[in-house]
Design goal:
The complex is a heterodimer of chains A (about 110) and B (about 120).
Chain A: E1 3-6, E2 11-14, E3 19-26, E4 32-38, E5 45-51, E6 56-59, E7 62-67, E8 72-77, E9 86-93, E10 99-101, E11 105-110
Chain B: E1 5-7, E2 10-13, E3 19-24, E4 31-37, E5 43-50, E6 53-56, E7 65-68, E8 75-79, E9 88-95, E10 106-107, E11 111-115
Parallel strand pairs in B: 2-11
Antiparallel strand pairs in B: 1-3, 3-8, 4-5, 4-9, 5-6, 7-8, 9-10, 9-11
């Protein structure tokens, strides 16, 4: 069956360290993958998109990798800050332009 | 440029009543998507619309749920005869083109529906 799995438990990271979130998928062949941030009571906010032929993408303190062989994406936040605390959603772009979301990982940056 | 707007932000209905959720896309966007999010669950795709057309409604329950995006005015998600299981956050997103790798979906703040 088709699955998207993100770190099921909340992630606690000390301020200043790098936070790494994982997104694994099975039985999908996504053309691209996106990461979103969602704060409590708010809608998701788009962060980064990486295509199937790209290995890595960066934006300021964010870095995303995409390994289509392992069927995995890693999302890194370097020099993490308490303001980075939120839920981060991985979303697969399947070929008919539909986006399939994972359940998200709650990230807490501890001061 | 205002973002995606949804109203109401919170909606309380009794079982059997109708719920009507509105979404105004970003200016210049003609593609609208509706998602449902249950507590501790991911966003689930419901329906994708363009002006006056339903493009993909594969995620929408066959009964009681309907959506429209008229030529003028907001997109409406309508739930008839609501049941407790309909309680969730409903998010609308819009994009300029058909989304996918060439465009981004921008999300509204959501409508939180509570069915008593």
């Amino acid at each position: 069956s088709q699955k998207i799995e993100q770190n099921s438990e909340a992630l606690n990271i000390q301020e200043g360290k790098t936070a790494t979130l994982t997104c694994n998928y099975t039985n999908y062949s996504p053309a691209y993958l996106q990461w979103y941030r969602q704060d409590p009571g708010r809608g998701p906010v788009f962060l980064l998109l990486i295509r199937e032929n790209e290995k890595e993408k960066r934006k300021e303190r964010l870095k995303v990798t995409f390994d289509t062989t392992l069927k995995q994406s890693l999302f890194h936040i370097t020099a993490s800050q308490p303001a980075d605390s939120a839920t981060y959603l991985c979303a697969l772009g399947v070929r008919d332009d539909k986006i399939i979301f994972g359940k998200g990982t709650r990230l807490h940056i501890l001061p | 440029n205002a973002g995606v707007m949804q109203n109401p932000r919170h909606l309380v209905r009794r079982r059997g009543q109708e719920a009507r959720l509105r979404c105004s896309p970003m200016k210049g966007h003609s593609h609208v998507y509706w998602y449902r999010q249950l507590p501790e669950e991911g966003l689930k795709f419901m329906v994708y619309l363009q002006k006056e057309n339903i493009i993909d409604e594969s995620g929408m329950p066959k009964e009681r749920f309907s959506a429209e995006f008229p030529k003028e005015g907001p997109s409406i998600l309508r739930i008839q005869q609501v049941v407790r299981g309909d309680s969730a956050a409903y998010f609308c997103a819009s994009s300029q083109t058909s989304g996918g790798a060439s465009d981004t979906q921008y999300f509204g703040p959501g409508t939180r529906l509570t069915v008593l």
